[in-house]
């Protein structure tokens, strides 16, 4: 394995494990190297080791900001709600917050959120839940949430802010990080200690260990990497938080306003949290065939429906069903890939699934390299046969 370590101060020593070579970089090169993309890191690695590959690289990156006086650890877990109900992914964020150590507080804002706050308060290890009950925050607009959350962090003197790497978290936390003058660490999959985090990069083909020396660490977590906390024996105190934005201020000052939403109702499991997922790709050839082949199998299995980016771009499925690097990241017990070739971008969103089953007419399709079970054949024949067998049982 090739291991590249980037220290917090130049010069930097790069060690290529197994070859006994060391490279000491100049301060000028180090400054350029530390801000380079992963692609440039790989290019450099290949110059000194022709056998280096993206999948063999592990990067250790340290920020260079001074830490200053140490503080007691305290983490604010940002909780997401929808229509007054706690979103399941928030429980994953609480689990990650508990791994940091120190005190754990939850933060939730919206309207009629008392039930959601009480659910979070029942999680063992949560010391306090801060709620802001105001309809101005109900729809989760990040431009409105960010100032409130940033002020809450400052007032509470928190060392860490954690949220799920969801659409809500990805919109909100970068703004909060900017207001707090911190460098965000995104989509982490492991926590080594209170300042060291692990995250996938390069479409999941390399793993970076990131050490942050910011006074306030702003983090989004990959939900599938942390088990959901269970609301059971906890008894956290629920308190009212800051509420510095009135409805009038929100409507007049914000550049973003909520207009409306049109949600597609479905009785199927939610894609992000489903235990079983059936995904279709461009091999389905049309939206009609996608619905005809994929939906009956998903219903027979009690599974959620997913799709590759190629299928979404072709209009076979809605964008909300996209699985992959630019879609949802899932890790169900069973993932069935039907008519999906297995592009690297798609694999980045499902390769952590417990069991991967693939059906494709191309025996050389990349999807078979990661599949636990594979069936080479015409999906228009094989999938209906499989559906009938599942129904008969």
Question: What's the helix and strand layout?
Answer:
Layout: E1 2-6, E2 13-16, E3 21-24, H1 27-34, H2 38-48, E4 57-62, E5 74-78, E6 81-82, E7 85-86, H3 89-100, E8 103-110, H4 114-121, E9 128-133, H5 142-156, E10 160-164, H6 167-180, E11 185-188, E12 190-193, E13 196-201, E14 206-211, E15 217-221, E16 237-240, H7 247-253, E17 276-280, H8 287-301, E18 304-307, H9 309-313, E19 334-338, H10 344-347, E20 355-360, H11 367-370, E21 373-376, H12 379-392
Helix pairs in contact: 5-6, 8-12
Description:
- Its main location: mitochondrion.
- By secondary structure, the chain is an alpha/beta fold.
- The chain folds into three domains: 61 residues, no CATH class; 163 residues, Rossmann fold, CATH 3.40.50; 117 residues, Rossmann fold, CATH 3.40.50.1220.
- Helix content is 30%, strand content 25%.
- The protein is built from twelve helices and 21 strands.
- The strands form five sheets. The protein has a seven-stranded parallel sheet with strand order 11-15-10-5-8-9-16, with helices on both faces.
- The chain is elongated.
- The N terminus is likely disordered.
Number of distinct beta strands: 21
Per CATH, which architecture of the largest domain? 3-Layer(aba) Sandwich
Give the end-to-end Cα distance, rounded to a whole number of Å. Answer: 47 Å
Query: Quick one: biggest sheet?
Result: 7 strands, parallel
* Shape estimate: elongated
Fourth CATH level, the homologous superfamily of the largest domain: HUPs
Mean pLDDT: 83
Which value, in Å, is the CA radius of gyration?
A: 23 Å
- What's the domain count? 3
The CATH topology label of the largest domain is Rossmann fold
